[in-house]
Amino acid sequence: MTFIHDDFLLQSAAARRLYHDFAAPQPILDFHCHLSPKVIAENRRFRDLAEICLEGDHYKWRVMRANGVPERFCTGHADPYEKFLAWAKTVPYTLRNPLYHWTHLELVRYFGIHDLLDERSAPLIWQKANERLQSDELTPQGILKKFRVTNICTTEDPVTSLEFHERIESAGVPVRVCPAFRPDGALRTYDPRGFNQWTDQLADRCGSKIVHFREFLDALRSRHDEFHRHGCRLSDHGLNHCFAEPCTEQEAESFFAGVRSGAQLALSESAKLNSYLMVFFGRLDAEKGWTKQLHLGALRNVSSRMLESLGPDTGFDAMGDWPQAANLTAYLDRLEQADALPKLIIFNVNPVDNYLFATITGCFQSGASPGKIQFGSGWWYLDQKEGIELQLNALSNCGLLSRFVGMVTDSRSFLSFPRHEYFRRVLCNLLGDEMEKGLLPKDHDLVGGMVKNICYHNAHEYLSLPAALQPVAASPGKLH
Predict the structure, then answer these.
(1) pLDDT class for 480, splitting at 50, 70, 90?
(2) Domain spanning 13-44+143-463, CATH class
(3) Residue burial 261-287, b: 16+ Cβ < 10 Å; e: rest
(4) Is the domain 46-138 a CATH 1.10.2020.10 member?
(5) The pTM of the whole model exceeds 0.85
(6) Are 406 and 377 in contact (CB under 8 A)?
């Protein structure tokens, strides 16, 4: 039997039935990713396996570095085949790292290759995969169709153009590709130079001047409106922790004037201005019926040397350990008091806080929307088997797993869609094991119905995204 087979990760008869009959046939709704809309619009043809497999994938770069691979084979200008060979030599050392599973799922699902990747198999795998890359099925648009993706939401800065989303829509691509609003630059108030550069870009994008605070808020609202016209229904904030300091409009105006003039705000002043802005963003989302996403707790750019050399998002971020409870609850409470609490998904990167997050979501639910406040799927360092199970268990014990909106890729790689399959197999194995032990009823329609909803239908109903241009056919759920 090959390593990746029909029943991979499914360790009971109940798990196998749940997966094949209920999970596998569901299409994919990937509501948080970092795929490039430019690449999708241009339907880029990947030249070789190194390009589609390694380009921009900091998960793989991290383990290559840990295996002693020089940087030129990760982010440098080494020959593409040499880069792939360096990766192939690393793969056997990733046993028990999720990359071992993901890599072989990628080889099977994209290229039909069941061989284990190592230095010996690399030349033939390179040849076979490169031949397959010439087919239309493995262009970006072909991949979205192949994996039965109905919607993806790319993460976009408000200062960026949405021209590629326009091109995708006008080209009639059947998958609905919508932007998600990520205004992290607006919260760089601790960094006058970076904040003012970003604010100048915002002004240019809006065709206006931004001198006063009200002009800043008007520009942000204008971009929020423009994103909505392009199908955006989600915002996203990547924060160490929530900002929740009391701040009046007069104080915010004063702090904004200071940082706009180039002054360095005190950390307490920056936190207050950011707190005001986060309430403003909450109001914008609530007014339009958007879903807000909070990605909390990542400790970014811990190697200043590599940040200076390679820039951000290159594999030098870690798991943070900031206190989360007080600020998160204060922020949600402030929005609720103002009748401006939108639907909200909170993603946690530190498993120590799983139960904390799961219990906080239960404090702000509302009869207006089932599962209004969501504890999001295992994120970043937690989107592996153990991390997924920990999140599922915390959510199950403190809330309603049956209302969970499920998995996202959070990825820049077009090879990442099997992570949805990986999540679904882990979910079905967990539930199937409990059915076999008598902890859940042996009622496949009951448990399987929940599985179907978690894999697709909950997110589809919760997010209210614009419909895909063409319906997606169900999958039989078996390997071919």
Answers:
(1) very low
(2) alpha beta
(3) eeeebeeebbbbbbbbbbbbbbbbbbe
(4) yes
(5) yes
(6) yes
